Structures are given as structure tokens and as C-alpha cells.
Amino acid sequence: MSARPPAGSDPADVSAGFDAAAEHYDLLVRLNPGYHKHLRMSACRLHLQASPRPRLLDLGCGTGASTAALLRVHPRAEVVGVDASGGMVAAARAKPWPPGVRFVHARAEDLSTALHREGIEPGFDGVLAAYLVRNVADRDGVLAAVRDLLAPGGRLVVHEYSVADSGWARARWRVVCHGVVVPLAWAVSRDTTLYRYLERSVLAFDGVGAFENRLRRAGFTGVRALPATGWQRGIVHSFVATAPGSGTQAGPAA
Q1: Pairing with 21, which of 51, 100, 247, 252 sits 20 to 30 Å away (CA)?
Q2: The pTM is what?
């Protein structure tokens, strides 16, 4: 059951790790207190009340947990889920979805080309990227591509771990990984490869301020970081940003 180790930032290694974890992934995230609640919180922070049937991009959709969060908050939305892991996309496609939901197997770095190939037009009202940006090699390129895929004034929410700015958050993250996440992964799947990578990648990722600046360099406006709740406060954040232009009017962040 062991995957090729996602030892660094090689996207192929990371995708292979997620392929191997797909079978047990839903069970493991269900055991994570607040996981689905926090995804819904970030979906709410898109603030798309003005759009009766918004077009949404779920970037890094995995097995569809973030897709479900988007639909819970925006039940009339059309949603395109994209993920680089074929195993995750297959698991997402196997679930029942309402009309207007589709999934695309593609790397985030190839996002624009993949959507064009599928006949999917740009002009999304909102994009949710959950636990995605940390795992891509060309973060700035992916954010620029997302900006170009949004309608003018469209909203991006990056739902992501960030602990680099807080020694307390880093320490708590290590304790949770060693005391809960890795042992739980071993108990469920007998494979801890992906979850050891998870610990390392979070510790190596941008701090909150650095990622806010990265979003601004990519051309986004109104950038801010909003906290999660519970044990993940200070660890998981909703990074909210708006594409330039005056199209979709986003409401105040909360």
C-alpha cells in the first residue's frame, strides 16, 4: 500500500502519494475535528450572494470534500473540480452529485490548458483552493492562472495551513502530527508516507504575511487572512483575495 514517497516538492511524487491515500482519505478526514466545518467556513467566505447560479472552481478538489462544502453553501452553483491525483478524482466522480458538477484530472500548473481542452470557459465567479497551493511547485504561476480564470471582481479563497509566523502554531502542529495524524494514518492504512510529507510541507510553507504578499504580487486586491476555529486556529487560514476589475461584487469578509 505504500506510495512512491512525496519527499520534496516534485509534483509527480506528491500526486502519487495522494493516489495511494485515496482509498482511506475520506475516513481520515472525517476523524479530523473541524475539517468539514472549516471547508464550509472558507466556502462561505467567497461571499457570492449576488450570483444566483455562480460558476465555481474547486482547485485541488481531492475526493470531493471541498466540492461538497461549496454546494452546501452555494447549492445552485455550477462547480468544476480539478485535481492532479487520478485516484482522488476517481473517488470524487464515484459519488452522487447534482447536475452542473464535473471533475477534471489535471495538474494546477496546467490548469488553463486543461480547462480549455475540456471546453470550460474562464470567467469563474469564485475559486476555492483547499490545501492545494502548498503542494505545487510553481505557486506564483498557479495564482496568476487563477487570477486570469476569474471574472473581474471574482473572489479567491485559499484554504491552507500556515504556521511559519508563530512558534506556538509550529509546536502545536508538530505535536498533532506526531501524536495524532501519523499514528491514525498507520492504524487506518498502514501507510504514513503522505502524512509525514504533510507535516514537512506545512512547516516549510509561507507564513501568513508572506503568502498575503504573494497573492498581492499575483495581482489580487483586498487580500486578508481569516482564522479557522478550534484546535486549528492559528494553523489553518482562509486567505481571501479579489481579482482586479469591477464585475462580481464580493461582500465583506467574515
Answers
A1: 100
A2: 0.90
